[in-house]
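A student in our group prepared the protein record below, which I am reviewing. I have pasted the whole thing underneath without changing anything:
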Amino acid sequence: MNEELRTGMTQDANVGNRVRTRPRKRFYPFNAEQTINLLSEFGPLVTMFVVNALYGINVGTWALIITTGMAIVAMLYIFHRPPIFPLIASSVTIIFGALTIITTDPMWVQIKVTIFNTLFGVFLVSGLWLKHNFFKYVFGKTFHYTEEGWNKFTWSFAIFFLFTAVANEYVRRTFHDEQFYRILGYEMSGVNVWILFKVAIVLPVSGLYAWVITRLMQKYRLPDPVHD
């Protein structure tokens, strides 16, 4: 009788422990591994934009190269794979940055965003049409979604890339380098207006968009695989 009582009490205690240790729903959607992955993927791009706004395209390009190298080393050490986006973006930025330096025409580095985002958006849509999901290939070890979830995730970013390409081209064509504009009480050249647009609008909106989409994608999330 005493043995049965002790067994029942132990079972009740175990149940209570399971209830108390049940993980609560987190407001922040990423775990430590996912956070490191995202920082390694997008950190160099953010660094390039900020440094470019403060010191110009020359220093901004070097900042992108250095932080990309650091991201590559970190990713290879932690996850045994290089960061995809910084590698692609750095190659494109170096080419258009070199054209800007050679020709002294900022049009090249400005139009780079239009060309890159348009091509990347079309690339994502084409991959979906051919049943090859690029984002699933890149982020498949970090995020675990259903097939429907991956398709919606990729579609949303393809549309976002195309939208930012159109917005970038609108700002580039509206604010000319040889003219000055009064923005927020300051006289700015067209290039500085474009830089302000990239740093103060595009970057925070992109971060907010990625955060919102990731939150909405939780309903398509699969359990993390268990590694022995």
